[in-house]
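Okay, is this right?
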Amino acid sequence: MAQLWGGRFTKETDKQVYDFNASIGFDKRLIRQDIEGSVAHVIMLARQGILTENEMQEIVGGLDSIRRDVEDGKLSVDEKYEDIHSFVEAVLTERIGNTGKKLHTGRSRNDQVALDMRLYTRLQVLLVDALLKELLKVILNTMEGNLDTYMPGFTHLQKAQPTTLAHHYGAYFEMFKRDRLRMKDIFKRMNYCPLGAGALAGTTYPLDREITAKLMGFYGPTLNSMDSVSDRDYLIEFLAALSMVMMHLSRFSEEIIIWNSNEYRFVEIDDAYSTGSSIMPQKKNPDIAELVRGKTGRVYGDLISLLTAMKGLPLAYNKDMQEDKEAAFDAFDTVKDCIALFTGMLDTMKFNRERMAESAMMGFTNATDAADYLVNKGVPFRDAHGIIGRLVLYCIEKNTAIDALSLDELKGISDKFEEDIYDAVSLKTCVEKRLTVGAPGPEAMRKVIALHREYLEQEEEDWFPDTAEEYEIHCEVVEDEKIF
């Protein structure tokens, strides 16, 4: 057993207790963040005169060698240690001697793990945002190429009114755009540094928390040491936002699954994103869409797990909070995989445009437009509604569509019908005359698409880097201090 404490104790911790208590099995993924925080911490300690310049250089050099060896596969995290902090400090001391024991000066594992998790989560926010941006690009490309791809719009899973594939996809563009806005909001609220909070009440060492915050790209230090180490609301907020991302992905997946069915045949999923059956050779299954739909519940569970773990904790730190990591890591990994795979599936999917238009024509989606036609002929809307209802019933009995009826048949329902009814209820007319903002008409859609294209091409604000890679480069050098 290798741990950072023990002087108070007269006998070894029970092995089963030690294993149950240890977190290194999952917090080892925080090693880069642990080293980054440690480097910033010792730079600050040297500036404050708590460490000498030589001690700082020795420690930073040792930490950098650990990082490089882990990244190059020359050093593996040894799980005999209680947590990643113990491992890093022990290896550092092995490499540089007693100077390594000064690494923990003015610091507690409570603020250390709070920092590591915040650094790691901040990076995940950026990675998820970058993936969402790629998904939006694919959605927008599909919208631009399908302004006149007619299809039925649905309510209650029943055909309602004609629309276009561009318009349908546009609804998901709005959803995922809001998801990106949530990423930005979370980043702004969480980007404050807890390092220096100590166990719960700060420290008597003359730390400069502004320096460490700046070195790691934070806006500044957190302002209450108890809150700094004892809350995970930024993490809960992120998991809630990830749950909404998954909800949107799941809804989209459900539609693709339906569209892919033999009854609909709206889409064909690329072979690379499908699987077959072990017994039925004709099958081509939408497994990616189904798995995304299924994994949504998993991410919801991660959120509920964390909410439940935190709901009754008194201030300040409690060991219950160690349970934040496994749930969070699972959600991070699941959502990133789902967005990436869903984007690839969407980008390679083919559309059966003729079948989509045929479905819109045979589903009486132009019934509202037929009623509006009668209103324009002077029929009160309520009467027009009843006339079209009888017309639809007649079509159902004849197994035909409104625009497939002869003019005599139409006049048998109402003498207000004239030859111009056929143009009035064509899919093209039904869609094109809907010109209000947000409607599927091509002119309205072109304006919206232009706004979306501008949004995706615009420069991001300084506080929210465009990519995670830019953020990491930004963190490498601050005030000429090389962190990595």
Q: What stands out?
A: The longest strand covers residues 158-164. Residues 109-144 form the longest helix (36 residues). Residues 367 and 388 are 7 Å apart (CA to CA).
